[in-house]
Amino acid sequence: MDDGKLNQTLLDIYARLFHRYGPQHWWPAREPFEVIVGAILTQSTAWTNVEKAIASLRASGNLSAGAIRRLSGTELAGLIRSCGYYNVKAKRLKSFVEWLGERYSDNLDAMFSNSIGELRRELLTIYGIGEETADSIMLYAGDKPVFVIDAYTRRILDRLGLTPAEKSYAACQKLFMMNLPPEAALFNEYHALLVHLGKDACRKSPRCAVCCLSENKPVKPGDKFPCSRLA
DNA sequence: GCCCAGGGGGCTC
DNA sequence: GAGCCCCATGGG
């Protein structure tokens, strides 16, 4: 598919998803530090459980880099217990705040004033931060135009026959970033909508994404989902 | 009881 | 460097 066509296809998918699901409100008006904590805690974890962990950090006065550094690993693990994997996640949170203090004196504005490429390289050196989490931090906490690729996105690309020849994270990310206007607000909403679609139907009914997105018919508010061509 | 949720690290081969 | 296992709770 040539680039002009791909651009139209990706925008069309976005329009259909937005029309169907509406705005997703991922991390609206949150402090960047809270968003970063959420990005780490949500790894392989349902968001409802992450909210409880963040609430317990806040209620105990520990939703800050300095406070998390002062807590022992065991204390921190106890506070975030509700989101699962609490021992590894306590280590990951600590590794991030140690780095943040050392590298940027806890100044997130300074951290985000770095270029996207350089910041991404730095984040990837931190224990517990891989590509998806690094990109989530830059997009959702830093408002940077970086497209986040996750398992749902890959599955949906697959269903639509859009997976690039090289199936890597970088190649999937490039597909979106080379064919969409580089706007953080668009990338923010687009990724959240793909996750919604993935949770809604893609996993249970592998053909739903194809049915709803590749058929050449407009989506109207109130349309039933999915359509009748289920596998 | 069973399955999986907005991954990443570490090990094996 | 792809393929596997581990981490662990809570909700449907």
Q: What does this entry look like structurally?
A:
This protein has 231 residues and is mostly helical. The protein has two domains: 3-24 and 148-214, Endonuclease Iii, domain 2 (Orthogonal Bundle); 32-141, Endonuclease III, domain 1, CATH 1.10.340.30. The protein is built from 13 helices and no strands. It has helices at residues 3-21, 32-41, 47-59, 65-70, 73-79, 86-104, 108-112, 116-124, 131-141, 151-159, 169-177, 184-202, 208-214. Helix 2 crosses helix 3.
Features:
231 residues; mainly alpha; Endonuclease III, domain 1; 2 domains; 62% helix; disordered C terminus; DNA-binding
Q: Look at the structure and give the CATH class of the largest domain.
A: Mainly Alpha
What is the number of helices?
A: 13
What is the helix content?
55-70%
Low-confidence blocks of residues: 214-231
Q: Biggest β-sheet, characterized?
A: none
Oligomer: single chain
CATH homologous superfamily classification of the largest domain: Hypothetical protein, domain 2
**Annotated CATH topology of the largest domain:** Endonuclease III, domain 1
- Average pLDDT, rounded to a whole number, is 85
Name the beta content range: under 5%
Helix and strand run: HHHHHHHHHHHHH
Topology summary:
Blueprint: H1 3-21, H2 32-41, H3 47-59, H4 65-70, H5 73-79, H6 86-104, H7 108-112, H8 116-124, H9 131-141, H10 151-159, H11 169-177, H12 184-202, H13 208-214
Helix pairs in contact: 1-12, 2-3, 2-9, 5-6, 8-9, 10-12
The chain binds a DNA duplex (13 and 12 nucleotides) through α2, α3, α6, α9 and α12.
